[in-house]
Amino acid sequence: MNHMTVAASEQSFQAVFNHLRDGFHETASGGGDFGPFSASYDVGVRLEGGTIDLQNNNTVLLSELDIVYDPLILRLGIDIPEICVGGFCIIPSPFGCILRAPRICIFSADPDIQIDLDLSGLIESEISGTFSIDTRYFVDPGRPAGMSDHDAQDADVPNKWQLFLNPGWLDIDLIDIADTVGNILDAAIDAAIDGLLGWLPGWARSLIRAILGPIVALVRAILDIADDIQEWLSNLLGISLGLFNTVVTLVADYFASRYPFLEFEDPIQVLDPGVNLIAVKVPIRDLDVLVTDDEMVVTANVGA
Amino acid sequence: MKARVNTCAVQQSCLQSSALGVLGSIAHPVGRPGEYSGRVMQGKSQVAEFSLHAGPDVDATQVTIDLARIAGSPLVGQPYKAHKYSVNSDGYLMLFVSEGLGGFWVQLSSQGTYRSRVVFDSRRLKSGDLFIATLIRPGTHQAKMPRAVAAIRVRAPEASDKAFQPPPPAGMTCTKTGFVPKRLEVYATQGIVFGFETTSRVQIDLTKPAPARSAKSRRSARWRGRPDIRR
Predict the structure, then answer these.
(1) What whole-number distance in Å separates Cα of residue A176 and Cα of residue A172?
(2) pLDDT tens, residue by residue, B70-95
């Protein structure tokens, strides 16, 4: 028989989880070189929604936790081809060209363009998973050795029992990429090329655009975008850049080791201080957690 | 974002066979086996020299020399190096300028047993020589040789779903009576090959640039109707 038992209903657990969820705001960046182009991202991630379902196997099922990408900036770096004139055959023969005009490059050195895509709020994904509840004892590193428990409470460095949500498995599902991404990409390509050629005389800009051909189609080809830009973007972000893995890792790390969803001071205060009386504190030992279908039950013993 | 534009090519409005610059090149048939030496001049200064071996034993039918690349800068004390080339004796010496202000001309001399003899001077092109011009700026150009002119209209490529590929080079011949044909219409970046039936030189000037064409046509909405005025 335990000395102390505290129970929290599923609703209460959901409220505590919501509070913890709302504190999540992480940032990450990454990138890679993929031959004809490079890509990198800067992302800020928030969490919304998410339903808690307590399970009688001592776990917590989390479903439909929405990932809000705000901001999500995807940067694409592209080498557009050299633009050269000449190189045509002047004297052909059945055995090949006898005399060929020299090739003169009028726009060279593999000019780079960078296309910035602001994808904030255009990608919907959600996380589901199960968590067990880990109990850990925390000794504040800021607490000097020999400091009394009362002094530690006053200095806000008390020892604590902490409960963490330790993920068993987490899945991230890409729900949707907005249709407007295609239009955003096309407009960004046009703007980048205009910026690159902007200082040239108008006739030279028109000539270079004519030699390059439809620039949007050219850049899409360099990026290896087939018909389905959503699928391309999903592969780029999810597989090539590993964004979704990064997000899952951030979420798992946040819940499992950075922020406890519940914590108790040790020793716990059971009577407030009175006149000429100090607060009464009792030490907590053998903290344990049991999850059932209906509630989470925390048990503990009192003892030195 | 970085870009390198061949500004001399973009800004050039005059091409001369006698003072070679970007977008112009000269092909000279070597003709005879032997050892040759070349002097590369820029204005009045010698900026490079080269030797050329021409023989039936050489496979290459063309030796291409970028005069801008081999030229030293005598004004800043940069000495030029001697360059060695070889070509089939039935092949061509191709001279061009990849970048810079240009103004190059070349003398080629055959190295005889006792003395050298100038066999080619790029300021005076002869039968068999070719001057190749690649005009990139749309507009009307005038080709000139002593006592003769011809008009060349350079058209801008049409906007298309495909990358622009210029047609094969057009031809023009410099004869004793002038250019044949006297008028030519080409697309920007399409080559023009000038042949010579008489000793001459060619200069091409931009006389009237094509009017600037906006990349996107402007559209504006207009409301037409009778204002409803009530008194």
Answers:
(1) 12
(2) 887 555 555 566 789 999 999 999 99
Q: How far apart are CA B131 and CA B133, in angstroms?
A: 7
The model's pTM is: 0.69
Smallest CA–CA separation between B78 and chain A, in Å? 25
Structure tokens at A103: 């090739």
> Residue A207 and residue B156: Cβ atoms within 8 Å?
yes
Would A104 be classed as within a structural domain? yes
Residue B220 has pLDDT above 50, yes or no: no
Domain count, chain A: 1
**Residues of B numbered 124-143 whose beta carbons fall under 8 angstroms of chain A's beta carbons: which are they?**
130, 132, 134, 136-138
Task: Looking at mean pLDDT, say which of A52-61, A146-155, B216-225 comes out highest.
Answer: A52-61
Question: How confident is the model over A180-228, as pLDDT tens digits?
Answer: 888 888 888 888 877 777 778 888 888 888 887 777 777 888 888 877 8
List the Cα angle B157/B161/B167 in 5-degree steps.
40
Q: How close B79 gets to chain A, by Cα (Å)? A: 26
3-state secondary structure of B117: strand
Across chain B, what does the average pLDDT equal? 84
Q: How many CB atoms lie within 10 A of CB A276?
A: 5
**How far, in Å, CA of A250 to CA of A240, rounded?**
18
The verdict on B37 touching A (C-beta cutoff 8 Å) is no
**Cβ pair B82, B67 in contact under 8 A:** no
d(CA B108, CA B115): 13
ipTM: 0.83
The one-letter amino acid at A92: P
B169 vs A: CB within 8 A: yes
Residues A74-89 pLDDT 10s: 999 887 777 888 999 9
